[in-house]
Design goal:
The complex is a heterodimer. Chain A is of the alpha/beta class. Chain A contains 11 helices and 10 strands. In chain B, the strands form 9 sheets. Chain B has a 9-stranded mixed β-sheet with strand order 18-17-19-20-27-26-25-22-23. The chains are: A alpha/beta, B alpha+beta. At the A-B interface, strand 8, strand 9 and helix 10 of A face strand 2 and helix 2 of B. Strand 8 of chain A pairs parallel with strand 2 of chain B.
Chain lengths: ~300, ~675
């Protein structure tokens, strides 16, 4: 994925505008939008509005490789020296113009179905769709692998202009099901992607297999650039319930009848320990990490990503 | 256990409410599909045991609270055998006899038996119908002012309130007779007599008085189930020990064990309020033993001695009091009016010999003799008493000083003789003489019928001890050849201590101011009488010296039993007589009209202890050592063995069987409910 080389800083937009934008981009507002495409457009628009456009956008001139000439290629990039040496037509290709393969690994296990008005899965779909949108705009090749305890939906990387629509349809069709096994999904992905790629994982990491973090490290070791969006619902971060509650598991049949007030402190301790564990593993493996709450505005998450501010 | 409102016991069914609320609450719990259940389960696992315990405790508390409230409203009562008779509910006449004798001072469960009897009496009063007549009698004073049948319960309550245990033994018979009298006079149809007593054998009549069949008798033993053992100091005496030192005494206490089992007890010796020695006695069942103490008193005079045991249930007889007279000195000046170079003919020869004799354990008399010519009134302050023996005359200044001395509290003995002429003496010593001298009986006229010493005033402390001796210590055989007759006196207050057999006074006393004057109407040597060579001379003179010198007299201290009255003669000029009873600390005072005219005061010994008397004369407070005494309880009630007082049923059965007493428990249950509520609130708030 290419990253925008924009100058950081406030947009300078009036506060009233920002407030209006807040209202348009919060989870409730997004939930009111009927289709994923509309949600993605709004989020991306919001993100782009928050960025300064760079004058050198896409202007990298670092040589990457030669490509045999095919009709339609820009003749200006024809490598005449190579023609002299090998008597064949080669076209120069540069780094920023190399087709980037970006794999979007989206957790659609049962636990991702939690939340209203926008479930974690719907939120993740908007995030993944927005990333795919941006990638498509840069003529990169986004791919989608939706997984639960295995990969259940896969859209291979393509650079075609129609590919975004295919991807968005696939995202729209996802429903939360089964248990989470991030490790297995990564194993499958490593079989699918040969070239170095950008792998973006969007998951709550409630991994039943327990190998997810280890395989993320292995993925990084193979030279892939890995980003983890650790997606959590605000309820999971605060346990705001007050009355006697029967909590039921979303991926199995277990339940717990408990007074939330009585266990809140202990729960928050346990949960924070889990988040620190995930974050620590990502730091060790140099995996970019971002904890995302469903209460966070997605455009800001995207801006952070585009500005390269994710913790590595 | 029974219930006053058993219908409300159905309320205990509400105990299921908390459980139902709990179960319903479980089903009404909000169902939330939750992704992070694993973390909740993990958190809950660490808290589960504590939470589960807390929740179960809360459930238990709430259930118990509901049950306690229901039980409280149902008013539970605990029924116990009350030991009280069943009283029929109709109108009747009831006489309550409360035993207030000393044995009822016994303590059980931290209250005396009298208090327990009063409590039972109050319970009975509550059960007796309002239309019934009730009288309350005490055993010690059965014909007291409240001994009347009345429907006025306040009267009965007040009588119970005022009733306090006494110190004097009494038997039940007079109270029973009084109860019968009341019922026969005021309730001819009969009635019920309830006796609340420890039913100790010593207080029960050998046989009931003639008992009409219309009157029921029901004894209630308030000491039932209590041990009947008791220890008592039954005797306390003091005697010179024979050890070196005139003030060494042997103090002996006899201690008895009235229990049926052997006993050991410490015995304490207290002198003048201070515990000085301790012994220990082993007492056989029903046996007695002596505990002896040896003590040397630092000072002469009267001392307060007490012997006490470790307190038992009846503390009244665990201590005994004794006033001990310890030898001191009486300083006496003897003025010789007829000295002689021949010792036997000297006026003071016999008197000095008598006073110099050892007085045993009593105070020593130290006599100093001077010739009448050498008499110096300025020396008087150094002496407790003065004897003028056949002194012809004194100078006016000396006479005036002597009068001041006597009025100020000194003692004076005037003995006559050949040197005394009646007229001159009356003129010179008139202010001091108890009665004027009339003249000397003629030797010739009296030759045929000599005088003999006759009647002793046995009540007078001076000769009381002599009067108790067989033959009056030989005074009756004393022959008197010559003696002065006395004129009647208009002064008043004189008292003939000793008389001749013809009735004329031989020894006359008068109080002058704070002092005493004794007139001996014959010679103090053998000139007119053979008294000096009779056995009674020595003790009589010793007593005279101690009496005039205000020393404790042999036999003067009284062994007073509680309940007795003791006569006290305040010194002239007394404006207030004070009594302090130790160790209780009670005080009494007499003054004004009570003391007018030198009246004798009767002091009632109504409690055991030392009765310390003092008199206010002018600005001075004088301790009346000779009048002070120790009082001890009558030991008739120390034996606590139970006797039998047969119950009598009246025709119609006024008293039959035992009642059951109901103890209300709802207060306790209410308190429990309150505690449960507090516990529940605390747990809920803490969660």
């Amino acid at each position: 994925m290419s990253q925008a080389q924009g100058a950081a800083g406030p947009t300078g937009a009036p506060e009233a505008t920002a407030t209006a934008l807040d209202r348009q981009l919060d989870a409730a507002a997004l939930a009111r939008l009927a289709s994923l495409r509309l949600r993605v457009r709004r989020v991306v628009d919001g993100a782009l509005a928050g960025l300064h456009r760079s004058r050198h956008h896409g202007a990298s001139v670092e040589f990457a490789e030669h490509k045999e000439y095919a009709p339609g290629d820009d003749l200006r990039r024809l490598d005449w020296k190579a023609l002299g040496k090998f008597d064949r037509y080669y076209v120069r290709e540069y780094e920023d113009e190399t087709e980037l393969r970006a794999y979007l690994l989206l957790d659609c296990s049962g636990s991702m179905g939690y939340g209203r008005p926008l479930s974690k899965l719907q939120y993740a779909a908007v995030l993944a769709g927005s990333l795919a949108y941006l990638l498509s705009r840069q003529r990169d090749s986004p791919a989608l692998a939706a997984f639960a305890d295995d990969v259940i939906s896969y859209v291979p990387p393509r650079g075609r202009s129609t590919h975004l629509a295919v991807l968005l349809r696939a995202l729209d069709a996802l429903r939360p099901v089964g248990s989470t096994d991030v490790g297995r999904a990564i194993e499958r992905l490593m079989e699918l992607c040969g070239r170095r790629a950008v792998v973006t994982v969007i998951s709550d990491m409630f991994d039943t297999g327990g190998r997810g973090l280890a395989l993320l490290q292995r993925l990084r070791a193979r030279g892939h650039q890995v980003v983890l969006f650790h997606l959590l619902h605000q309820d999971e971060l605060t346990l705001p319930f007050s009355q006697l509650t029967r909590f039921e598991a979303m991926e199995e049949t277990r339940h717990l009848l408990v007074d939330p007030a009585g266990v809140r402190q202990a729960y928050l301790r346990e949960f924070e320990r889990f988040c620190q564990q995930v974050r620590g593993a990502c730091r060790e493996a140099q995996v970019a990490y971002r904890r995302v709450s469903t209460a966070d505005r997605l455009d800001r998450v995207l801006v952070e990503l585009l500005r390269g501010r994710l913790a590595a | 256990m029974s219930w006053l409102a058993p219908a409300l016991l159905f309320g205990t069914g509400l105990a299921a409410v908390p459980l139902i609320v709990h179960l319903v609450g479980r089903h009404r719990a909000v169902r939330v599909p939750f992704a992070a259940l694993d973390f909740l389960l993990r958190a809950n696992k660490t808290l589960a045991r504590r939470l589960r315990f807390r929740q179960r405790l809360l459930l238990l508390l709430r259930t118990a609270l509901v049950v306690a409230l229901a039980l409280m409203m149902a008013k539970p009562v605990w029924e116990v055998a009350s030991g009280l008779p069943v009283l029929h509910l109709g109108k009747q006449s009831v006489v309550l006899i409360i035993d207030d004798t000393p044995s009822m001072r016994r303590v059980a469960d931290q209250i005396t038996l009298v208090v327990r009897a009063k409590q039972r009496a109050r319970e009975l009063l509550r059960t007796i119908s309002a239309s019934s007549e009730v009288a309350v009698l005490s055993v010690s004073d059965p014909s007291g002012p409240l001994a009347l049948l009345s429907r006025d319960r306040r009267r009965a309550w007040a009588a119970l309130e005022r009733l306090q245990p006494g110190f004097s033994p009494a038997t039940l018979a007079p109270a029973l007779e009084q109860a019968l009298r009341l019922l026969q006079e005021e309730a001819p149809v009969g009635g019920l007599v309830l006796v609340l007593s420890d039913l100790a054998a010593h207080g029960l009549p050998a046989a009931l008085p003639a008992w009409p069949s219309s009157v029921a008798l029901h004894p209630i033993d308030v000491a039932a189930g209590l041990p009947r053992g008791n220890r008592a100091v039954v005797e306390l005496s003091a005697a010179p020990s024979g050890a070196p030192g005139r003030r060494s005494m042997r103090l002996s206490a006899r201690v008895c064990n009235f229990a049926r089992v052997p006993s050991r007890t410490p015995v304490f010796l207290l002198i003048d309020g201070r515990r000085l020695a301790q012994g220990e006695l082993s007492l056989a069942a029903g046996g007695c033993a002596y505990q002896h103490f040896q003590h040397s008193f630092a000072q002469g005079g009267a001392h307060e001695v007490a012997v006490a045991l470790a307190p038992d249930a009846l503390t009244l007889d665990d201590v005994r009091y004794l006033r001990v007279e310890v030898a001191g000195e009486v300083r006496m000046l003897l003025v010789n009016g007829d000295p002689s170079p021949v010792r036997q003919r000297d006026e003071l020869f016999y008197l000095q010999a008598a006073l110099a004799a050892d007085g045993g354990d009593r105070q020593r008399v130290v006599a100093r003799a001077v010739r009448a010519d050498d008499f110096d009134a300025r020396q008087l302050a150094a002496f407790d008493a003065v004897a003028l023996c056949n002194v012809r005359a004194l100078a006016a200044a000396q006479l005036a000083a002597l009068q001041r001395y006597v009025v100020g509290g000194g003692g004076l003995l005037i003995a006559v003789g050949d040197a005394v002429e009646a007229e001159r003496y009356n003129a010179m010593f008139g202010a001091l003489l108890p009665q004027p001298l009339r003249g000397v009986t003629s030797a010739n006229a009296e030759a045929a019928s000599e005088l003999h010493l006759g009647a002793l005033d046995a009540e007078h402390p001076l000769v009381a001890s002599l009067a108790r001796e067989p033959g009056g210590a030989g005074l009756g055989r004393v022959r008197v050849r010559r003696a002065f007759r006395l004129e009647p006196s208009t002064r008043g207050g004189q008292r003939a201590v000793l008389r001749y057999d013809d009735g004329s006074p031989a020894l006359v006393e008068v109080q002058l101011g704070a002092g005493r004057v004794l007139l001996w109407t014959t010679t103090i040597d053998r000139d007119w009488t053979d008294l000096p060579i009779r056995p009674g001379f020595l003790p009589l003179m010793q007593q005279v010296a101690r009496y005039l010198g205000r020393a404790p007299l042999a036999g003067a201290h009284r062994d007073v039993t509680v309940g007795m009255r003791s006569e006290v003669t305040p010194p002239p000029g007394t404006t207030e007589l004070r009594l302090l009873i130790a160790p209780e600390g009670a005080t009494r005072r007499w003054g004004g009209a009570a003391l007018r005219g030198g009246r004798v005061i009767e002091v009632l010994a109504d409690q055991p202890g030392f009765y310390r008397l003092s008199a206010v004369v002018g600005d001075e407070v004088r301790s009346l050592q000779n009048e002070s005494f120790a009082a001890n309880v009558d030991l008739a009630e120390s034996q606590l063995a139970a006797g039998t007082l047969p119950a009598r049923a009246a025709r119609g059965g006024a008293a039959a069987g035992r009642a059951r007493q109901q103890i209300e428990l709802w207060h306790a249950v209410g308190l429990l409910a309150l505690l449960l509520l507090l516990g529940e609130s605390w747990l809920t708030r803490r969660g």
